[in-house]
Specification:
This protein is α/β, with parallel strands linked by helices. It is built from nine helices and nine strands.
């Protein structure tokens, strides 16, 4: 029987691994970081995310040590001095389904990791900005597959992460608006030599597909030093998705500029029928076909219960 690559830990077992790591956030800050429909609180931060921030701090130190050892082996003293001055960004990938809470996880990690004195500059980029513009998706017949791997400008996303990892002084990424459900023309997010870069998205753990010439290509996950997959039962995620849609219908969708404003002008049941259909035809197939199969590629899996709280964790040991 093959050795299992993960060690499974209950929330209680994981919690004690934080040792004496101080809690740098208060309840108001956690509330601000929490996504719509998520229930993360100070207990969750203390018991789940503080141990994770400690583990990541250890990973960052070990990774920098390994890079220094390689440079020593290569005998490139000039490169060693440059790496010591600038450093190579540590890159974290965060993956999971729509509505599973990966955005909240990413924002919490950014806030916690930036409190460590060893790496105060932490940037967060979502892959939404690399979705092809809506007009192009319509032209290609891909609008109904928005969020599937083929709906992204994968070459641009790969180039962005590669440039950040290479230590380029300034790298930019497109900006996405959830209000208008599209990229913002002419607007760019600028990343300047972060200590840590967090890349959050549905499909960031996807392996590269062979090119037309049959050769294996690089994937975004090849640049990750650590990765997190936020996991839950599909039926629970569907319920969270529908609850979030209800909440958005009462808030953000009320804005006349919202792409989904039309669903505030129909009955709640008609609006929810649209949401259910979107889940059945887009989000659930994408989860089953593309997102969930990448779970085993993550360094750490966070397993949530029906109440949206992390109940157990699986940490890769091999």
């Amino acid at each position: 029987m093959p050795t299992k690559p993960y060690v499974d830990l209950s929330r209680a077992e994981w919690s004690v691994l934080r040792e004496r790591t101080p809690l740098p956030l208060n309840a108001a800050e956690v509330e601000e970081l929490r996504g719509l429909g998520d229930v993360v609180d100070l207990d969750e931060v203390r018991e789940v995310f503080l141990p994770l921030s400690r583990l990541l701090n250890l990973y960052v130190a070990a990774t920098h040590g390994l890079r220094s050892a390689v440079n020593t082996f290569l005998g490139d003293a000039g490169r060693r001095r440059e790496d010591a001055r600038l450093g190579t960004p540590f890159v974290i990938g965060v993956a999971g389904s729509v509505a599973v809470g990966k955005s909240t996880v990413s924002r919490l990690l950014r806030a916690l990791l930036a409190r460590w004195p060893e790496h105060p500059r932490v940037e967060l980029v979502t892959t939404d900005g690399f979705l092809l513009p809506t007009a192009e998706l319509e032209e290609r017949g891909l609008l109904s597959r928005k969020g599937f791997p083929e709906s992204y400008d994968r070459r641009a996303l790969l180039g962005f992460v590669a440039d950040v990892k290479a230590g380029k002084p300034e790298v930019t990424a497109p900006v996405y608006s959830h209000l208008v459900y599209d990229r913002v023309p002419g607007e760019r997010l600028t990343v300047r030599r972060p200590d840590i870069l967090i890349v959050e998205g549905l499909n960031v753990l996807q392996p590269a597909l062979p090119g037309r010439d049959g050769r294996t290509r690089l994937s975004v996950s090849d640049y990750f030093d650590f990765s997190v997959y936020v996991d839950a039962r599909t039926s629970d995620i569907e319920e969270w998705y529908l609850n979030r849609f209800r909440a958005l219908r009462e808030t953000a969708f009320q804005d006349p500029r919202s792409y989904f404003h039309r669903y505030t002008e129909v009955t709640e049941e008609e609006a929810l029928e649209f949401a259910r259909r979107t889940w059945r035809t887009v989000n659930e197939p994408n989860l089953r076909q593309n997102i969930a199969p990448t779970r085993g590629r993550a360094t750490l899996q966070l397993h949530k219960g029906a109440d949206h709280k992390v109940r157990r964790l699986s940490l890769r040991k091999l």
